[in-house]
Amino acid sequence: MDVLTTDSVNTNTLEERSRTLNRALARIVKIPAFSAGILHETAKIISEEGCRALVTDRISIWRTDENLIQLKSINFYDMNKDIHSIQEDFDLSKRQNYVEMLKSERLIVIADVALPNPLSDVVEEYGPEICAMLDAPIYVDGELAGVVCIEQDRSEKYPDKREWTIEEQSFASSLGDFMALALISAERRTLTHRLKTMMGNLPGMVYQCLNNPPDYTITFVSDGSTFLTGYSPEELTGNSALTFLEMVHPEDIELLEQRNVETLYKGLPLEATFRIVMKDGTVKWIWERSHVAKFDADGNAILLEGFYTDITDRHRLEMAEMANAAKSEFLANMSHEIRTPLNAVLGMTDLALKLTKQGEEAEYLESIKKAGSQLLFIINEILDFSKIEAGVIELHPEKYQVNEMIRDIVTMIQVHIGDKPLDFIIDDDPYLPAKMIGDVTRLKQIIVNILINAVKYTNEGHIIFSVSAEPCEAEDSYKLIVSIEDTGIGIKNEDFPALFDNFAQFDTRKNRDIVGTGLGLPIAKNLIELMGGEIEATSTYGVGSRFSFYVIQKINVPQPAQLFMRDAVRRQVGLCFSNPIKFKIVKNKLEKMGIYCDMLRQVELSKYSLISKYSHILIDEDKYPGLSGILPKTLKVYAIKTTKHDTKDLPGNAKEVLMPLTNLCLSKLLGGKTETLLDDETAAEGFNLQLYDTRILIVDDIEINLMIASELLSALGAETDTALSGAEAIKMVEEKDYEIIFMDHMMPDMDGVDVTKHIRALPSEKYKKIPIIALTANVVGDVRDLFLRSGLNGFLSKPLDRAEIEKVLCEWLPKQKWRYERVQKKEF
Q: Pick the residue with more confidence: 629 or 213?
């Protein structure tokens, strides 16, 4: 038995899969045992090649007896054990249903043996490990002569079933045809007619032609020519209708002829991809493999044999992938070209605002910053949409603190609300788990997108942001449930079907002053579904809208983030709120914490006998007028503000608190002994990060970027050095010790990845451990994995954000190098 080299079974693409199957068939055709009529050797090779090409567990080949009451084993191959054997006869006398199916069906395809099927009496002969079957009948002279049985066991890849593809079914059918020819050869019958019949069932066309260019006179062609080219074998044989080259697309003839000269003319095999024009004018992409079948006495090739197969669908897929790659490259460049100057605009604006505290200049600078932030938001939406459309967006789960996520979202949305007379109400369940595991960046993006829409389309009233969680069936998973309700303009019924469509915007005349791309909701929906969740919306036009969704998150710390006050029973809270919905939500949260509270009317605030029982009183800002000097100084009074602007008529003994009231905020307001599971509670509003004895290197080829990053880090107490090139950075790293390096990604000569690899290769262990963080304006594709594979520790996207910089510093600097220090403020 000849030893054949088989293709790798790791076929990950359509092209590799198709080539694996086709090459296996081509090898079988050429084995000496096949033409010599050595049946058992042929069956061994067919079963082994079939197993490896299909990546399945076993193939057995059987022949029937004269009365169709028994199957006799020709060969049984177990790929896992790499063993060939002969099995006992298989009784068909009580399985005539199976026989009839073999006689009437081209293939018997069973993807899941556990489901009801007509072959249950056959399946029971197999062990419980089998999950799928594919049987190809063998016909000789139109009569059932045997069967090729392909078996798939349960595995990690196929735990319950295996869906056999059309290509795999066609391949199995061809194995049956090959065995038919092997049986005929073994009985010493003529091969020619049977070979032609078998070739007609191949997923392509086999041909033989003279090497007499440019005619290449066809001497044999299989029946597959009709499907592949539209021409019958009779039309092609002898070049009756046209020559080979006349079928080839005019633009590909020269290239194909060149390939012939480079290969076949030298006796080498040819593999080529080109187009043909079918009889009806349709263009197909063809993959050809051919070789010299016969040489003359002088060693010149005189007879060629080859195989054509249709790869039009595969080529279309490849073109789509190339188009996506080109688009991704364009978006990466666009992202870099836009974000780089935008980083300078926003960074320099922040620096100017530090020097200009008030007046018209400060207002102008705030306007520039606001416009730049809006532009950045639009750019991010377009880039995210492109990544989703290209199917390259990925999730990066990490541990995160739920209360911290809520706080970050609240901070961002308050900026967007600005001076709008809105009650931003947070209904965060006190029983929320402390820590979860998920892509918190994408989760915040989803929530912020929906909240920003609510702010855009709500001019007055309220926005309610609710967060809760409930356990899933899986022990380590929770369903994080979010809803956002507003009193905005609402959505018309006729607009609902297109609500999550790309670029959809409604009531454009009425809302022409509202900036946006129409991509926020489609992006949110795609990300939610990527996280295993769903989103739904309800709305009444002119009244408001409600969006709710859930995502599946892994659980890290299931206990509530805010443990309740041990002395909660000593606290009684009076709530003087204008909005009854806000009162209901805050009351519900406090009662879950074990704190008694009820509603106070403004008139009751002047009556000591009515308010003296309360340990704390919370008052809405529209209830302030007339209270100055009335409230007893012994009471703890908190004035709830919607903006940071100065408020007139504030009660004299009241402390100002900025809305909204999260659980963490309420716990701090009411004082007492509280416990928290937050790691960095001090990293909240009212604390600033301060660095100590920290030297940082910043590398960027643009001086403005260096200035901005240096100012940001210097303001935190760092000592900074800057480098304008990779070569300069390497030299400085060799001369000085740095606690951390911020490295620009795209630089001329040496980019950030190359510089990092060079630093990591320096002859000292410290160079392998120093944290290196990429600064990048390219946020297209999975840059995170690129940086981590290249030796960087993480990345920050431009424009730089102070909060993100602080997170990176706290993560990578030693604990003794930083701490959060309280900032003295008038406001609480």
A: 213
